[in-house]
Fold each of these.
Amino acid sequence: MYKLDLPVDLKESSAIERRRNLELQRQSRIFNAKVRTIGVDLNALEEQSKDRTLRENREQMRDEAFASDMVRNDKIAELLQRRQEQDIRNLNKALNEFRAVHQQPESRREWDIYDPDGKKKDKPARVSDDDPRCGLSSLQKFDGEDLNNKARQKLMQEQMREWSKKQAKEKAAAEARQKEADRLYQLKARELDQRACELAQAEEDCRKAIQASVKDYNKALADEVAEKARLTKEQELDDNFTEMSNHIYGDVLTENPDVAQSAFGPHRVITDRWKGMSPEQLAEIRRIQELQIQEKKRIMDDEKERDNEWERQRLADARAGELMERQQDRVRKDLDKQQVENNAKLAAEQQAQKAFLDREVYTNPPSAAYFDQWNKTSR
């Protein structure tokens, strides 16, 4: 039997996995037409790198400015939030202390209703005939048995009076405590507002100092630029005056004929200084021009005779070419007729061959799975 539980070679499996990942990365680069590049434009890449560096520097400066503003605002907001939370904690603490000291469950008027030890403390249903707890629903005392009506009414009135006094005192004490809490809260709020105003004033002073320093720097820079412009203008005026003097007193405007003499011989002149020819030179030039006119006329007559000869030769060649073209047209028509017959014959043979291939040879056409196996690797 074959051993199928052989240990896995981790090194070989890691190498196979690495080659598989490299192949997938290569396919993503080659098959994706948007990221595939052929050749490298170094100038464009350098320009893009410079633009990207400049843009990153500007974004970094802007982000640092925004970050500093955010840090300052966060500190102010954190300070105000801490103070507000401290005020809330102090108010809650005072409220809980008041409730723990002055609002005990035993001191409530309805405590006897939900007292867990009420049954233990309760009296029997009826102690005596004048028991005030025996009402209509107690089934302990019926009509005609109310012997302590006056005492009960008096006791109820006194109890109501005591309850009213106690409620008035509690209400007055609660109002006094609420006023004290409101006064403390207002004092704390004014303190926070004062601190916020101080922080805003400090920030405004810092901004004014920065603006003043920037203004002084801009003024010094503007003075420096104005001084440079003044010096440049003075230098330009001096250069203009010097140039005008050179033109006025130079050999160009004074038309000195000696300045046109060349150092390479008397027959040569300096073109940018030459002021014109002498009458003898002009007469010699006119004589040479007359000779050139006569020579040109003779050459034109010879060329006209040669053109007439070429025209006669062209007409003869045109007649011969027309005869040859007619002969070629007849031959071409015969060839076209023969080609049409051959094409018809070939078309019939191809139709028969295609029908034979479709019926006898191509009996197993490829499916979509056959085409899906291509373009799966970059090699």
Amino acid sequence: DALIAVDAVIFAVKMRVTYFVAFLLLAHVPKIGSTPVGKKAGIHKQNMRDQHREVLTSLVVPLVEGNFSSFINSERHSLVEFYAPWCGHCKKLAPIWHEFAFQVSQDPLLSLNVQVGKIDGDSEKELAEKYNIASFPTILHFPKRDRPSMYEAERTVEAFMKYVARLAKPPTMQRIYAFDLLAREFYNAAGDTAKQEEVMGRANRTAQHFGKSQKVAAEMYVKLMERALAKSGGAQSYFDEEAERVERLILTKLPAEKTRELLLRRALVSSFMTEVAAPGIQMPVPQRAEGDEAESDLDDEEAERAEAGVEEGGQEPAAKDEL
């Protein structure tokens, strides 16, 4: 009996030790939401923030004497921050400036017209003295082929974006009233190939009388008519698809000249698809009653007057359509 009692005690002690060791092991196993997992999540988030910061930083062009001149003399508006590494205000502005550059890069029109840079004015003392930099940070705006001016508004992303929005308005697209009317006549003659060819012939002849400043737009009207005639699905189908295609291409990264051409193309495609109310103004297409005839086109003399931007009565209409 005594031996049995001793064995029982030994067994009980072993079980307690086993339970205690198991408890200690389980206490150190990571659980969902526990501190070790939380630390890993925090490290991952920090890595993501670091990567985002690197992307933002890369969008601000670092400038030195060697590349400064070519940067500010480009075909874009240049906003340049003069800073110093030891400057506390500069360090505070840095993430805002980088975020501003990112916002510019995400806008197709802004990125074509605005670029963002920074220069260490403490190291590049000659350039800082040349532009009378008396304190850091100082932001200068270098317009296209013009003298610089100091940016003196708020230093927030919203304020910077508001400032550049007025600098980078979409290019003024040359809409031609006479061709808008021809475009509508062409579009309304869908299904009548002979009529559309006749309208296109008139448009082609009229385009020959336009000067260099409007000839690109005039010829593009004619080119759109040619492609619409070649489309197997008809003119209306072509313009619907072309409007979607051009809109999609505008949002992609293309050279500045190509994007300007696409913006003009979008304006002209619209002239086929919307009713012309007056020079430079368009209205939604009304429902045409059965038996109504399509609106007649201008004769040559009226076309020349429309090109010159003068209506009957001597008033000067808005011949351009800003997008």
